[in-house]
């Protein structure tokens, strides 16, 4: 599963799927979700087709991931998570908004075990099991920075790395939810606002 995520309402979220490992012959398909809830599916260079529409559940969609069964999970800014099956049928899967009074949920990630994790700008990470059970996973990010954590990734060992927007600090959260300062990229001074984070197979951030 690979994804490209967006923060502002006008940015499209994409989920990319590679049918096989050969770039010369691979069929590439992806599903695009706009902030209003409309979803389109593309296969290779073919024109887009309407795939689903989740606007009935809200109009500020922020992020989306896909599981190994082809189900999509879309995150709304207010903490609602909608599941879209491979045939485009949508339903509310979980709601994490009760874990924070700050309804600014920015990022959604999927672990190897199938658990979903949602990041709130108020330094809170919620966990949602494959059965839809919601719990608080981490909240001690506030000891590093109080708010505006924007993005995170998960490594194969179940550790999280999350980026603070304004200072460029990166926190590491272990599989038990304990957070520590991992790095600070601010000395690079590329920009005053840091927006996203990726990780490779060697756990380089």
Give a summary of the structure in a few sentences.
By secondary structure, the chain is mainly beta.
Q: How would you describe this structure to a colleague?
A:
With 205 residues, the protein is mainly beta. 0% of the residues lie in helices and 44% in strands. It contains no helices and 17 strands. The strands form four sheets. The protein has a five-stranded antiparallel β-sheet, with no helix packed on it. Strand 14 (149-154) and strand 15 form a beta hairpin. The protein is globular, with a radius of gyration of 17 Å. It starts with a strand and ends in a 21-residue tail after the last strand. Mean pLDDT is 78; it is low at 1-11 and 16-24.
Question: What distinguishing features does this structure have?
Answer:
single chain; 205 residues; mainly beta; 5-stranded antiparallel sheet; 4-stranded antiparallel sheet; 44% strand; globular
Low-confidence stretches: 1-11, 16-24
State the strand order across the main sheet.
1-2-3-4-5
- The H/E string reads EEEEEEEEEEEEEEEEE
* Tertiary shape: globular
Mean pLDDT: 78
Please tally the helical runs, counting DSSP H or I stretches of 4 or more residues: 0
DSSP, total strands: 17
How much helicity do the residues have?
A: under 10%
Distance between the termini: 18 Å
Radius of gyration: 17 Å
How much strand content do the residues show? 35-45%
| Category from helices, strands and their pairing | mainly beta
Largest sheet: 5 strands, antiparallel
């Amino acid at each position: 599963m690979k994804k490209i995520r967006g923060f502002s309402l006008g940015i499209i979220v994409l989920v990319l799927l590679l049918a096989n490992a050969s770039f010369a012959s691979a069929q590439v398909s992806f599903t695009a979700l706009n902030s209003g809830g409309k979803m389109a599916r593309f296969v290779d260079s073919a024109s887009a087709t309407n795939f689903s529409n989740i606007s009935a559940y809200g109009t500020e969609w922020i992020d989306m991931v896909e599981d190994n069964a082809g189900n999509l999970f879309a995150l709304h800014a207010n903490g609602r998570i909608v599941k879209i099956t491979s045939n485009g049928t949508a339903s509310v899967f979980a709601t994490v908004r009760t874990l924070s009074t700050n309804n600014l949920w920015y990022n959604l990630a999927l672990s190897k075990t199938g658990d979903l994790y949602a990041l709130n700008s108020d330094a809170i990470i919620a966990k949602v099991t494959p059965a839809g059970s919601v719990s608080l996973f981490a909240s001690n990010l506030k000891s590093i920075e109080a708010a505006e954590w924007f993005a995170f990734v998960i490594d194969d060992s179940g550790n999280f790395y999350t980026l603070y927007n304004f200072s460029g600090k990166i926190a590491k959260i272990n599989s038990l939810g304990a957070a520590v300062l991992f790095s600070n990229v601010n000395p690079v001074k590329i920009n005053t606002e840091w927006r996203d984070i990726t990780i490779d197979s060697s756990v380089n951030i």
